[in-house]
Amino acid sequence: MSNQPPNCATCGKPRPDKFCPHCGEKRVEPADHALKHVLGHLFEAFTHADGKIFLTLRTLLLRPGRLTADYVRGRRRPYIPALQVFLIANLIFFLLHPLIGGSNTLTTDLDTHLHYLWHSAVAQAMVAPRLVARGVSLDAYAAVFNPAAVARAKTLVILVVPMFALAAMALYWRRQRHCTVHLVFALHVCAFWLLFVCASLTLTNLALGLLRDVHVFPSADAVTRAGMAFSLVVMTVYLFNAVRAAFEREAVWMSWAKAAVLAVALELALQVYRLALFFITFWST
After folding, report:
1. Helix or strand run (H / E) with residue 193
2. d(Cα 114, Cα 274) in Å, to the nearest integer?
3. Is the pTM of this model over 0.85?
4. Distance from C-alpha of 62 to C-alpha of 241, rounded to nearest angstrom
5. Residue-wise pLDDT tens for the chain (285 aa)?
6. Using CA of residue 112, residue 116, residue 122, residue 126, what is the dihedral sign?
7. Residue 278 per-residue DSSP state
8. Which candidate among 81, 101, 137, 180 keeps its CA 20 to 30 Å from the CA of 162?
């Protein structure tokens, strides 16, 4: 009988012990196929990932800039990657979208494109000939355009990230940070922004409901202006704390100024995203 140890099922090299010294693969034993063992591994994997998600989201919401700062320091294992943070926030937004209804922040409908955005004149000039050429009403075309816009918004919203990253890079170019750091910072900030949009839209809907109960009906323009002002204030405060945590400290007034510029840059990136959403949805419907 040969005393040669069995080969590893993964790398094919001799494995004298429970774990392969070459690739680390564990030797499969009969107990590993037991239902109790399998369920235990599933529970451990779920709670480990779940714990990372909650820690990451808690840090994102309560400690602005800390995720990026830890990324720069090399402390990354406690958190999920920046892109996954953004995708989770994006998923949360679009899962809540039917509940917070009427949101035109990301899923901008045709009526908003035509009447309430800076590119409305362009949108009207493009939509009017199409309605004539196809012989359809505006309502009929909107019934096609709006669902398509919602579907495309789920992926196109990522366009906000590189635009915001460029703004951060322009403000902090003297720090000589790698562009990856600015991209990670942008992913974290935009993830917070998506969650903030969910919360602010929920509060807006509640406030409008209360105002309607007392027979007060603010105009759409007033609601839009108030929402934009509130968003700029909240994002400026968040970004002030974020830049002071993620980048080297500087004069307080300088941090406030850069935070305000970044908040405006985020709003401008949103407007460019809406324009891209209109063009892509228009040409595909």
Report:
1. helix 179-213
2. 12
3. no
4. 10
5. 445 567 777 777 776 777 787 776 677 666 655 666 555 555 555 455 567 889 999 999 999 999 999 999 999 889 999 999 999 999 998 888 777 765 567 888 999 899 888 999 999 999 999 999 999 999 999 999 999 998 999 899 999 999 999 999 999 887 667 889 999 999 999 999 999 998 988 888 888 788 888 888 787 777 778 888 999 999 999 999 999 999 877 899 999 999 999 999 999 999 999 999 999 999 998
6. positive
7. H
8. 101
Residue with tokens 């196809």: 134
Dihedral sign computed on CA atoms, order 123, 273, 231, 214: positive
Question: Tokens for 95?
Answer: 């899962």
252 in Cβ contact with 260 (< 8 Å): no
CA dist., res. 192 & res. 198, Å (int): 10
Q: Which residues pair with residue 19 across a beta bridge?
A: 26
Domain locations in the chain?
Answer: 1-33, 45-283
Pull the structure tokens for residue 244.
């002071």
How far is it, in rounded angstroms, from Cα 190 to Cα 186? Answer: 6
Residue carrying structure tokens 């953004």: 86
Paired with 14 in beta bridges are 7
